[in-house]
Write a structure and sequence with these properties.
Layout: E1 4-7, E2 13-21, E3 24-32, E4 40-43, E5 49-53, H1 59-68, H2 70-85, E6 95-98, E7 101-104, E8 106-110, E9 113-118, E10 121-124, H3 133-158, E11 165-169, E12 176-178, E13 183-187, H4 195-207, H5 216-225, H6 229-238
Parallel strand pairs: 3-5, 11-13
Antiparallel strand pairs: 1-2, 2-3, 4-5, 6-7, 8-9, 9-10, 12-13
Helix pairs in contact: 3-4, 4-5, 4-6
């Protein structure tokens, strides 16, 4: 693998050099962006890494930044590999997560009515619907929209916090968010996690009403209301593919 300087697709000055991540060398693209305020590491579509160098930053610090976050990059590479192997369609027999358990999808037909069943759930299928994934995901989203907001308000009241609004969305890269105005947004896929992990994710966002950052003060607040939060974080890291 060669090291060289070139122009990135966006016209910014860039150089590429090798970085060892996981069990192989990958290209690391170092891109200067005078509009950037901080160093940012991303996994590229081609399976390499890209570090944005902010104004006043250095190539050496960019390299150090990539090395410090190598474990994050390796997780992303593993996730990408698993995603490639993972079938996009869900057929009968496929395993899906529901309330923390991996449960199989089964197909049932009765008097022309087709439905997919998993755990204690039954979902009506549309005519000609062979891929079970759209129907199951629609059902899980609807279920999350019914169950998650009441739980948010319940936990908020228990800790003396005021929530203005709760929305359940199809977020692609995060489990939830909190605004300064008291709006909590949650990913519908939280319904696939165990109840303890669900509550941790809600409490995590609620604590942002006290600290709008991830400072030590924030994490101390999280630990006070959810002493086992590290176990929940580990579960989420192991099941991050639920976001895909």
């Amino acid at each position: 693998m060669q090291t060289g300087c070139h122009r990135a697709a966006d016209g910014l000055s860039a150089r590429t050099e090798p970085l060892f991540a996981g069990d192989r060398w990958i290209p690391l693209c170092l891109v200067r962006n005078p509009r950037a305020r901080r160093y940012v590491l991303r996994l590229t579509a081609e399976g390499g890494a890209r570090v944005t160098i902010p104004r006043g930053g250095s190539v050496e610090e960019a390299r150090s930044f990539a090395r410090r976050h190598r474990s994050w990059l390796e997780r992303q590479l593993r996730r990408r590999a698993e995603e490639i192997k993972r079938p996009r369609e869900w057929l009968p027999g496929a395993l899906v997560h529901f309330r923390g358990d991996a449960v199989p999808l089964t197909l049932a037909e009765d008097h022309g009515r087709r439905e997919v069943r998993f755990a204690d759930q039954q979902v009506r299928l549309r005519d000609g619907e062979a891929d079970l994934r759209p129907a199951v995901e629609r059902h899980l989203w609807q279920l999350a929209a019914r169950e998650l907001p009441p739980r948010v308000f319940e936990l908020a009241a228990a800790h003396g916090l005021i929530v203005r609004r709760v929305s359940v969305r199809n977020q692609r890269s995060r489990w939830g968010s909190c605004s300064r105005r008291g709006t909590i947004s949650l990913n519908w896929r939280i319904i696939q996690a165990p109840p303890s992990v669900r509550d941790y994710l809600i409490l995590h966002e609620l604590m942002h009403l006290r600290h709008m950052n991830h400072s030590p003060h924030f994490w101390r607040a999280v630990a006070e209301v959810c002493p086992d939060y590290r176990a929940a974080e580990n579960w989420l890291k192991q099941h991050a593919l639920l976001l895909r």
